[in-house]
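Holo prediction — magnesium ion.
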Amino acid sequence: MPPTPERYQLDVAEALARVVAGVPRLGTERVGISGARGRVLASPARSPIDMPQWNNAAMDGYALRASDITRVPATLEVTGTIAAGSRAAGAVGPGEAMRIMTGAPVPDGADSVVRVEDTDDGRERVEVRGNRDARRNVRLAGEDFRANTSVLEPGDVLGAAHIGLLATIGAAEVEVVRAPRVAILSSGDELVPPGQFDEVLAGRKIVASNAVTLRELVRDAGGEPVDIGIAADTRESVREHLKRASGADLLITSGAVSVGEFDYLRDVLVAEGAEIDFWRVRMRPGSPVAFGRLGAMPWIGLPGNPVSTMVTFEVFARPAIRKMRGHDAFYPATVEVVLGEAFDRTADIAHFIRVKLTCENGRLVAHRTGSQSSGVLTSMARADALLVLPRGVHDAPAGATMRAIPLNDRLAHSDTFDVG
Ligand code: AMP
Ligand code: MG
């Protein structure tokens, strides 16, 4: 006997906890560093070299002994020139200096590099006119890191600096957590792929846009999307399409989870050996979201309305994908926002409201982007964030403080450069 919907009805936090507990962290693979951006490192990256490898000049100028410039001006004999890329030649003795370029090895005996602006730039003899650089401008060998130590640790998320570091230590490949292959299944007799727009123009069908938004969201979360097509609203078609998910690490379906329709999707899944963990969450939009397992493959059943699909992806699927690909921080971070208008609630469940964020007097102010109908994708396209009105919060007047989940990198960018 299938459990009643009541038994399945969960709060968002409980449902999310079950999803992240129900998906595994994936195993590891080796990838070339040029494809490693955003991946999570699985084993330490050890350096075979000291960094820097030699004491080197931080300035263009003259390598010399600080004891020779305690009184300035001081005139020293120039015994050579060391270019970046050349080996250290000889040593600097008392009363001597060598011309040196940034990055070039500092010769033995020298403990300072005086910048060229503080000298007369002489070739045979140099007059040093200031001594603010005494004992300065020498970068010591190994001051960044030592040979045989690890410079990156498991769990590090590889960004530009990390990949630059890997190149610095000669690592052409690294071991990272595998990116999940995410099968995306649409379902509904009314749907066609974007390529069959003539049927849409003829007024017979709608584009299965969820397959497209999900492909982008999965990529954005670090998964590899695999579109397994559109199942018709029949058991046979769903069964056929589910086979195409074999080999995927995660199955995401959209549609066919609303009351009435869920029955056949659940029947097919259960007949194929699936366990259903939950169906329905106390949230809007997106309440008929489902989670289960088909053999070893976790399944997240997103509702079909385009905004419900995207909101439930943000709340459940993105954290699942991030956990699978090795992140420790897999939940969406939230920001504090001030309500720019009153928000009313339609039921005692968590509300996720599409809002535009503006910065006013140093605070983020949230305004709704328009219709909050779960089919209106334009108001999602205009949104910077999902304002969260948690279950149990009954009053959301203008000026109240709430939290929101950013949807884009708008908060990371500005049309002015505000550094004071
Ligand atoms: P369902 O959950 O199957 O009842 O679908 C709810 C609504 O979402 C219906 O209006 C469907 O036409 C629509 N819908 C379902 N799947 C998709 C999809 N892949 N792309 C766009 N709209 C969809
Ligand atoms: Mg449907």
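READOUT: The chain has four domains: 6-27+179-324, 28-51+144-177, 56-139, 335-412.
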